[in-house]
Amino acid sequence: ETGVTQSPTHLIKTRGQQVTLRCSSQSGHNTVSWYQQALGQGPQFIFQYYREEENGRGNFPPRFSGLQFPNYSSELNVNALELDDSALYLCASSLIWRGGYTFGSGTRLTVV
Amino acid sequence: QQQVKQSPQSLIVQKGGISIINCAYENTAFDYFPWYQQFPGKGPALLIAIRPDVSEKKEGRFTISFNKSAKQFSLHIMDSQPGDSATYFCAASVQLWEGGSEKLVFGKGTKLTVNP
């Protein structure tokens, strides 16, 4: 059984650019959630996808968007990058939310 | 009201000692309380979790104590080991919409150092 895989592991972007982060869910999981973890902070919920549709959203602006594909993999897209977007972006998958997420190791995004 | 407050921010314990991390919440809609362990460069890993109808749960050296009336819960690590040195997050689960799936609200984390 494979875990949650995220790519790339590290990324440096310039302010104003766009970025796409990718996530492969754990085998058998059909729900994907994305979290942003700023340095020294706990993860903050961005949004969740289930059956290829956004299932809920946290307090993040529309320039944060996502996709879920038929194979349950997912993308997080961030447009018009700002310096404060620098963080670890975590993807987490689950089958039916009652047993805990499985988190990936994250993508470290640095905006300069 | 969607916050989970965690303390202390950092904790240093001697090998063999007891590590205690505390969390408090306000939102009574929270219905699942997991603890996560995170090592540098890794994502959080589920350590142990509890539901509010249970006052204590123990798994090996890790115990969650839950006080529903006080809206507080804590993680106790018995016989702490240097390998336990990591950042620990408490979290609480709340439904995204009625009858739907849920999201986690995390505390700010506690950096635990266990000295040999």
Largest sheet of chain B, described in full?
Answer: 6 strands, mixed
Number of strands of chain A: 11
Low-confidence stretches of chain A: none
Q: What is the helical fraction of chain B, as a range of percent?
A: under 10%
- Summed over residues and divided by their number, the pLDDT of chain A gives a mean of 92
Strands of chain B, total number: 11
Radius of gyration from the alpha-carbon trace of chain A, in angstroms: 13 Å
Q: What percent of residues of chain A are in strands?
A: over 45%
What spatial form of chain B do the alpha-carbon principal axes imply? Answer: globular
Q: Number of DSSP helices of chain B? A: 0
**Helicity range of chain A:** under 10%
Tell me the number of helical segments of chain A per DSSP (H or I, 4 or more residues long).
0
| Mean of all residue-level pLDDT scores of chain B | 94
Secondary structure category of chain A? mainly beta
Oligomeric grouping of the chains:
heterodimer
Q: Which protein chains are joined by the largest interface, and how many residues does each one contribute? A: A-B, 28 and 27 residues
Describe the structure.
The complex is a heterodimer of chains A (112) and B (116). Chain A is mainly beta. Helix content of chain A is 0%, strand content 51%. Chain A contains no helices and eleven strands. In chain A, the strands form two sheets. In chain A, strands 2, 4, 5, 6, 9, 10 and 11 form a seven-stranded mixed β-sheet that branches. A four-stranded antiparallel β-sheet of chain A has the order 1-3-8-7, with no helix packed on it. The termini of chain A are far apart. In chain B, 0% of the residues lie in helices and 56% in strands. Chain B is an all-beta fold. In chain B, strands 2, 4, 5, 9, 10 and 11 form a six-stranded mixed β-sheet that branches. Chain B contains no helices and eleven strands. Chain B has strands at 4-7, 10-14, 19-25, 33-38, 45-50, 56-59, 62-67, 72-77, 86-95, 102-106, 110-115.
